[in-house]
Amino acid sequence: MIDQTTYTGAGVGFKPIHFEAALACTEPGLWYEVHPENYMVDGGPRLALLEAIRARRPVSLHGVSLSLAADCSPDSDHLKRLKSLANRIEPALVSEHLAWSTWRGQYHPDLLPFPRSHEALARVCGNIEKTQEVLARRIAIENPTHYGELKGHDWGELDFFSELTRRTGCGILLDVNNVYLSAYNLGFDANDYIDNVPCDVVLEIHLAGHGEDGESALLIDSHAAPVADPVWDLFERLVARIGARPTIIERDDEIPPFNVLLGERARAQSVLDAAKGEAK
């Protein structure tokens, strides 16, 4: 695992189309993140690409399929394959989303929200604990994007996260774009959210682009555009408050050339470096 107290570099999400450029890149401190679901196999060319990248750079695993808020435990076969991959590449960090995609035996291909009830808290904690026990690793949980108000909350989001970390020992992966979108869509103050994030348990930061929904006034977490200026502003505010943390630039659609991602990565690195300089 990356030591967040000493390793505070910025990285990018790795895509196979960038393999040659990523392998040859000599940028100091650069690291990569992948979705483990694309590599949970026993062999083959895709896994070989990941192993070649891992031989040169740290790699983190950012999952999308554990369904930690589901009404059942994470799939045992999925956990077994995730553990095998983690043991194989020794990731800097394993992370997942605070969401569900499985309910009453039905799978939905999305990261879905839920009321933050006392019951949900116990359920999510149990699933995180099982995941960490199987993996024998601490994991980080990402804050969701919200597109509408849900009823039935017993906990505010940050209080819910604080209690998750207290009960399970997990950390937080703070997606700054998700904070901005949720604040815009639901009408709360993104700065206030950033100012109240529990500092000590933020293990990683995500930055991504977004877009407008063509049929509503909502902003959508598209990962198909450059990081927007208001998100950069929130990132600077966050890092000024909690210090430099490992940060990833996400891009999952409309993939640009590798050097474009490196440009965004350089901007993030400059913010992290400034925070480290102020801390000296």
From TrEMBL:
Pfam families: MbnB_TglH_ChrH. InterPro entries: MbnB/TglH/ChrH (IPR007801), Xyl_isomerase-like_sf (IPR036237). It comes from the Bacteria. PANTHER family: UPF0276 PROTEIN HI_1600. Belongs to the UPF0276 family. This is UPF0276 protein PAMC26510_16625.
